[in-house]
Amino acid sequence: MAYEGDEILEEVTRKEYEFGWITDIESDKAPPGLSEEIIRFISAKKNEPLWMLEWRLDAYRQWTEMKEPNWAHVDYQKPDYQSISYYSAPKQKKQLDSLDEVDPELRRTMDRLGISTEEQKRLSGVAVDFVMDSVSVATSFKEKLGELGIIFCSMSEAIQSHPELVKKYLGSVVPKNDNFFAALNSAVFTDGSFCYIPKGVRCPMELSTYFRINEAGTGQFERTLVVADKGSYCSYLEGCTAPQRDENQLHAAVVELIALDDAEIKYSTVQNWYPGDENGKGGVFNFVTKRGLCEKNAKISWTQVETGSAITWKYPSCILKGDNSVGEFYSVAVTNNRQQADTGTKMIHIGKNTHSTIISKGISAGKSQNSYRGLVQINKTAQNARNFSQCDSLLMTDRCGAHTFPYIEIKNSTAKVEHEATTSKIGEDQIFYCLQRGLDEEKAISLIVNGYAKEVLNKLPMEFAVEAQKLLAISLEGSVG
Amino acid sequence: MLKIKNLHASVEGNEILRGLNLEVKPGEVHAIMGPNGSGKSTLASVLAGNEDYEVTEGAVDFEGKDLLDLGTEDRAREGLFLAFQYPVEIPGVSNINFLRAALNEIRKYHGEEPYSASEFLKRVKEKSALVELDGKLANRSVNEGFSGGEKKRNEIFQMAMLEPKLAILDETDSGLDIDALKVVAQGVNAMRSPNRSFVVITHYQRLLDYIVPDVVHVLYKGRIVKSGPKELALELEAKGYDWIKEEVTA
How close is the nearest chain B Cα to the Cα of A364, in Å? Predict the structure, then answer.
């Protein structure tokens, strides 16, 4: 947020609301509730152009007509959308003086994930030196990206500095009225990431929100837009393996990917939001809409490791519009205690010779519920389309649930669609075998579970994969029974 | 090495071991034979620490330690190895990584540094040659898609890698053809030493042609009812178990 030197504008925008609920604005936080006024306020606060405001208002109007979906296999108390505050100024995280002030539980997990001390400080908001490594690394990365013409910035920044790109692509894959949560996000999103890879450029490094987390932080209603122009490539990492606490219970993000002709986007996520306690108290509701569009010969690959959140509702999808385009979805979803996950993908085949692959590995422990929900849709135009789906479930206890909801719609007789599904319980004989070789139970479970999820973990960028493996083990600690 | 006194164990309320006594000295090879259901595999499971079995009475001393007091993994770390009758498959976990994790865990327990990658691989090469294990098997997932014979050879390979003090071979010969049997026996014989003992559980005398035991025991109804030199195995082969049963009931 470019606030410096904007005092005059700030004055002006404040004035506009003098007669409304202005008194509350002193605290830089909107009063609870959602209305056109609030959206005008958010847009003004962010100094947005008129077209953006209108876009938001349109989304809001459509949202008011929509109903919260009920079809997912999750059970929760629906949030009261009028009691949420939709804007608070991006304020500095409370700075801590040393790691000793950080929640010891959080630190223990970070230690076990092998996160370095410097990194731990950054993640938990401990004041760090200016010469700290990652800051300078981030700066030099930015320079390098700039040389290649790659734009990688916050969404707010992109709206200001690259309005033509944002205008063209925002909402082009996930329309404003796509679903209840996407509409809500469209109306009130406060920030997120924007990325554009120019024609023929191969982005030489993993793009990660990590490098701009200091600038923007993560928001409750995040909006991400990645555009890979013709013949370009990029790999994008979202999230982080470190445990993330957030006071906001509701998260409704939208991610749109656009891969133009011959382009490739690899999008990897590790989601480790607070899952709530053993009894299901607290925890984040994660309602995410993620979708990618493939033009001719393009490829989009989603890889996700989901271990956090009390409720996960998420279906990263691919629209295979161009001929010969390829969509992939690799997922590991772990649920423990009282967590509920309903996740999967949609592969929409439109172009000829389009291929999609779905590998989903669910792991349920405790009293959790883990559902795979996937749609493979082969349209009339999709001559010679191919899909392979494999959905496996691993149960750690007798009290958890694993469910598979595969939907297949085929309108072209040349299609070839394969679906495999297995459900197994973690073997006591496997654990005993490991113990007999000298491994303790925790290591044994970690080995078995990581072996089970290997096909997916292998798709993650190297440094992420190692942490993700440890994360799986930690999420499932003491969960066999 | 191993001293078992009056061991009683049951599974789901059925008593299987009923006062078993056995002493194995360092360097010795003991064969345990007996009819089906006599408790041979139960003995192996109980010694290894399988929680499906409940020890109701008795004591087991292993190298001066109370074995029954140790958890399964600590028994392994103290040097007890069980070659499983039915080795389990662990999909997605490479044999090599599995062994490396196990070996380093055992080393850690004894306060030793983990092996470096090159030390470890050297050892793998050496030991896999011992049981003529194809290098490819070492890199495949633990036992996944292995033939019966490959699984058994893999058990012996693991034993060679972990160098236990006491190895219990639970019907390692079952399902092996004669060539594979020779290879397995060869691996075991190469590992015989004055400080290492073996308990070989088998149905058939055949294995004992290749792994020559110091003592042969007959297990019947949960107790060792007869012990003797290796010739006892030949006698059992020729006469079956009925005469033993008669002796016991007489």
Answer: 18
